[in-house]
Design a protein that fits this description.
The complex is a heterodimer.
Chain A: H1 45-56, H2 80-85, H3 88-91, H4 108-125, E1 129-131, H5 137-154, E2 161-165, H6 171-178, E3 182-186, H7 196-202, E4 207-213, H8 225-234, E5 238-242, H9 255-258, E6 262-264, H10 267-270, E7 285-287, E8 299-302, E9 308-311, H11 328-364, E10 369-370, E11 380-383, H12 385-388, H13 394-403, E12 420-423, H14 431-450, H15 452-457, H16 469-474
Parallel strand pairs in A: 2-3, 2-4, 4-5, 5-6
Antiparallel strand pairs in A: 1-7, 6-7, 8-9, 10-11, 11-12
Chain B: H1 11-21, H2 26-29, H3 50-62, E1 69-70, H4 83-89, H5 92-95, H6 107-124, E2 128-129, H7 136-151, E3 155-159, H8 164-173, E4 180-184, E5 186-187, E6 190-191, H9 193-199, E7 204-211, H10 222-230, E8 234-239, E9 257-261, E10 277-281, E11 294-298, E12 304-308, H11 315-318, H12 331-368, E13 374-375, E14 384-388, H13 393-402, E15 405-406, E16 409-410, E17 421-425, H14 432-445
Helix pairs in contact in B: 4-12, 6-12, 7-8, 12-14
Classes of the chains: A alpha/beta, B alpha/beta.
The structure holds pyridoxal-5'-phosphate.
Pyridoxal-5'-phosphate binds at residues 71-72, 136-138, 169, 171, 213, 217, 242, 244, 266, 281, 283 of chain A.
Chain lengths: 482, 446
């Protein structure tokens, strides 16, 4: 499709402002003014609407396609939460209003949402308190790492290391490093669990924290998780819970009960808020008693007269990690989702998410090698190593699935599984959807034997074929130029 | 009545699926979680219907005071959002997709982001842009970290005319790193050149300046940037994008990196988020940039297409050596921005900036006629300005709420000694009549 800039025509407009109703003022001194106009495109409103509507149709999305992108929890996003977030009382509220003298009363509705959402998340995870400020999962990790640093500093110790397993998501080691820690990577054993001998070897009083995902990124729940936590606590290290996979555990187990001290939750995964083509998300962070004092400022409190207020009086707080109170619009949608599902609905969510993943695993395991021969939780991870012997790689399988109308599973991650195919169906998909997807996967496994070239040519039914990514990186063209 | 949880499974489906798995119950699927580790509590209310939740949250939204006529800005502005922006971004093909890892089924998103990157480059006058960061504050932090990696130095000089919100975030993020910060005082509305040059040396990684600054004052930083470059340091700008319809761009002043909060480009205020951090830079810095970047390439038939590129900077490949930890970003807000800018078009962007400027000048005139109110005029402004009142500004703001106005931001909240100062923002949404009423009401409460 043509770029919007290639459709520009001088003189067209897609929006008109009201005529100025004030007298013409003295113009700003030219030395402060730009000398060159921008080359932003000018089009009619219809041109713009049609351009982006047609672009939207080139995307696969949850509403149009099965989207089993592992680790991302691409569940259905209920529509009513969109309408709620658009209520003017929420969408037009200036974030500084409650910071004005007496202004708290101007934002009682939103403050209540933040307060109550925090309470729900605390009960769901078994943590004592939450900050709703982190703007995505990785931002929550960084916040968590800073909380951990503040905790140790307060105890008078400066610890150097954060431990992560090699199956961890890339954001875990990146967040630890950015917070000022050195990263120790523990390999995964043949049984699919973190190698405990290696773990013990590296665990000492220089370790600030152990960052784990649970169930882990292989979709496996490690029954020894409590022992791992106990060992960490014995040397004074804290346990960090990457909540990307919380969907599997709702009502079944809680990170707080498992011995975790700091937890982030990806509201855009577990609590059904849309992923928006890459974001926004929200990554609230919950903590155990020992870390409450360090949470970012301000915190939302409920006063004895049942009104809500911002409280800045936390002298041990790490400070400010977001401009305001978090991605409020996202938090609001997640809150509406939690209220709607309630206790039974959330438990059912975990159960059916796990059922769907196990169903895919059971029906596909004769055709693809499992990364680890284990029962899975909310996602199953295969390796296309068998297919790769015939020259058909995970990425080829992904492209063939695109031709068949499926968004592919995650294939670039976890890095420790060669030719990974990480399938997370989520609870909102029906047996019929899974059945045809499974049939397609089986068809690919057969084609790999009979006609591998056919798979490697895919996609053939899309508006474009495979793209030259090497060229994109070697000769970067990152913007249109006139 | 059946409870809503958006799952389609019938009892028969569950039975058949369990059979295929070889499990006798759903509970059996959770057998890896030892009984001792099961949830000790899960004390939540029963689910509620869509009708009940909608009504409850409608009631809460009505408790928020959004009926006030808004003159509060302070970096976050009440601009008009054309209906077509919402109509486009609310298409589920956009908002229910995720990061475009698979380009063949994500060309709509990839091309939109490429167009967004182009728009940000055009506004800022710089060469390359990423696909978005969380907000204006994290964008400054990421830019500061880029400068530290690029120069191998660790001193950051920043303008105290930069929002306190962002300075506070920078301090928090870097509290465990050894970075030396110097804050330059604001004198007569502008960052003091004298002070700044005194601290500028060959240990300086970057100088960060905001334009217009927190007090609304506009500046031409070309001279500062030139000096900064003499010391081999980087010049980082934090800029209000709507002002760039009129003001000299960071590129024209030769800044190396421009960052900012994109909320003013078609994104609702929404009580603080989701917002849009943008970042543009000179092209030689691109390999140190954080976050997703989209590039143009060709498919195997030579047809144009778009992909995520230069990914060896990113966490999913480089892990602890990545340029940033960002994964999910604010793509949907970036889409709002590019649709907003495309609807306005190149003349609309200029008109919007011009309207903001004109209405603000009118408001200055109107307020300067009030006895006891002094409009600060030592620097030119764009759409926000400072007035000195004969009494505490927070008290005045409080009284003005009863008159139906959020009349401004009391500067004493962020700056000691400025208790009587009020920061007033005037966007294209404010009418002459509202401005005159603001002046009348203010006169009445003083
Ligand atoms: C296991 C895991 N951890 C962390 C993250 C990062 O979360 P976010 O993208 O919200 O920053 C992800 C995201 O995909 C993930 O899958």
């Amino acid at each position: 499709m043509q770029l919007i800039y290639e459709k520009h025509k001088e003189g067209r407009r897609g929006f008109c402002f009201s005529k100025p109703d004030v007298p013409q003022a003295k113009p700003l001194d030219v030395k402060y003014c730009r000398s060159k106009d921008t080359n932003i495109a000018s089009l009619s409103e219809l041109d713009v609407v049609r351009h982006y509507t047609n672009l939207s149709r080139l995307n696969f999305s949850v509403d149009t396609n099965f989207y089993p992108l592992g680790s991302c929890t691409m569940k259905y996003n209920p529509k009513f939460t969109e309408r709620i977030a658009a209520f003017e009382g929420f969408s037009q509220l200036h974030p500084l209003l409650p910071q004005l003298a007496g202004g708290g009363m101007l934002a009682q509705g939103s403050l209540e949402v933040l307060y109550e959402a925090e309470k729900l998340l605390a009960e769901i995870t078994g943590m004592i308190a939450f900050t709703m400020q982190p703007l995505a999962g990785a931002h929550g990790e960084l916040t968590g790492a800073m909380l951990i640093a503040a905790y140790h500093k307060d105890k008078g110790s400066r610890r150097k290391y954060i431990i992560v397993p090699d199956s961890s998501h890339g954001t875990n080691p990146a967040s630890a490093a950015i917070a000022g820690y050195q990263v120790i990577v523990i390999p995964t054993g043949k049984d699919g669990y973190m190698d405990l001998e290696q773990y013990k070897k590296y665990l000492n009083s220089d370790v600030a924290a152990v960052m784990l995902t649970c169930p882990d990124t292989l979709g496996i729940f490690n029954p020894q998780i409590k022992e791992i936590a106990d060992m960490a606590h014995e040397v004074g290290a804290l346990m960090y819970y990457d909540g990307a996979n919380l969907n599997a555990l709702l009502g079944k187990a809680r990170p707080g009960d498992l011995g975790f001290d700091v937890v982030h939750i990806n509201l855009h995964k577990t609590f059904g808020t849309p992923h928006g083509g890459g974001g926004p998300g929200a990554g609230p962070v919950g903590v155990s008693e020992a870390l409450v004092d360090f949470l970012p400022k301000p915190r939302v409190v409920r006063r004895s007269d049942a009104t809500y207020a911002l409280d800045y009086h936390y002298n041990k707080s790490i400070g400010y990690i977001a401009p305001f109170y978090g991605n409020f619009g996202v938090i609001l949608k997640a809150y509406a989702y939690m209220l709607c599902l309630g206790k039974d609905g959330l438990i059912k969510t975990a159960e059916l998410a796990v059922l769907n993943a196990n169903y895919c695993q059971a029906r596909l395991k004769d055709y693809y090698d499992l990364a680890f021969e284990k029962a899975c939780m909310h996602e199953c991870v295969f390796s296309a190593a068998r297919q790769a012997k015939n020259g058909v790689h995970a990425i080829d399988i992904a492209k063939y699935l695109i031709d068949k109308g499926y968004h592919p599973p995650t294939v670039y991650f976890p890095l420790i599984v060669k030719e990974a195919l990480m399938i997370e169906p989520t609870e909102t998909e029906s047996k019929e959807t899974l059945d045809v997807f499974i049939e397609t996967m089986i068809e690919i496994a057969r084609l790999t034997e009979d006609d591998p070239i056919r798979v490697k040519q895919a996609p053939l039914n899309m508006p474009i074929k495979r793209l030259d990514e090497t060229r994109a990186a070697r000769e970067p063209n990152l913007r249109w130029k006139s | 009545m059946s409870k809503m949880n958006y799952t389609p499974h019938t009892q028969e489906d569950v039975k058949q699926m369990l059979k295929a798995i070889g499990a006798s119950s759903i509970e059996e699927l959770f057998k890896d979680i030892p009984q001792a580790l099961r949830a000790k509590s899960f004390n939540l209310a029963d689910g509620k219907s869509e009708i009940e939740v909608t009504n409850h949250l409608k009631k809460l939204s009505d408790k928020n005071a959004t009926g006030l006529i808004n003159f509060v800005g302070a970096g976050f502005y009440d601009h008009f959002i054309p209906a077509a922006v919402d109509a486009i971004v609310n298409r589920p093909e956009f908002y229910t997709a995720y990061t475009p890892y698979q380009p063949e089924c994500s060309q709509g998103w990839l091309q939109s982001i490429y167009e967004y990157q182009t728009a940000i480059c055009e506004l800022t006058g710089l060469d390359v842009s990423n696909a978005s960061l969380y907000d204006g504050g994290t964008a400054i932090y990421e830019a500061a970290m880029m400068s530290i990696r690029l120069t191998g130095r660790n001193k950051i000089i920043m303008d105290s005319g930069m929002s306190l919100i962002y300075r506070a975030m920078l301090y928090t993020y870097t509290s465990n790193l050894s970075i030396e910060f110097v804050e330059i005082p604001v004198v007569h509305g502008h960052s003091s050149r004298e002070e700044l040059f005194k601290h500028l040396d060959d240990k300086t990684a970057a100088v960060i300046l905001q334009n217009p600054n927190f007090f609304g004052a506009v500046d031409d930083h070309s001279d500062v940037v030139e000096r900064v470059h003499k010391f081999g340091a980087l010049a980082i700008s934090s800029v209000y994008p709507v002002s760039l319809g009129m003001l000299k761009s960071p590129g024209e002043m030769n800044f190396d990196i421009a960052t900012g909060e994109g909320q003013s480009l078609g994104i609702p205020l929404s009580f603080g988020g989701p917002y849009l951090g943008f970042m543009a830079a000179k092209k030689e810095l691109v390999r140190q940039m954080p976050g997703r970047i989209v590039g143009e390439t060709v498919d195997s038939d030579g047809k144009r297409g778009f992909v995520l590129t230069l990914q060896t900077r990113e966490q999913h490949i480089r892990r602890e050596k990545a340029t940033s930890n960002i994964c999910s970003n604010e793509a949907h807000c970036a889409l709002r921005a590019v649709v907003f800018l495309s609807l306005l078009g190149r003349s609309g962007i200029k008109e919007m900036a011009e309207l903001n400027y004109q209405k603000t000048e009118f408001a200055k005139e109107a307020l300067s006629k009030i006895k006891g109110v002094e409009v600060k005029r030592s620097s030119p402004t764009f759409n926000e300005f400072t007035v000195m009142l004969p009494r505490r500004a927070d008290d005045v703001v409080y009284r003005m709420i009863d008159k139906g106005f959020a009349c401004g931001f009391p500067l004493g909240r962020f700056y000691k000694g400025m208790e009587n100062y009020l920061l007033i923002a005037v966007t294209e949404k404010r009418t002459k009549e509202e401005i005159c009423r603001l002046a009348d009401s203010l006169e009445a409460v003083l």
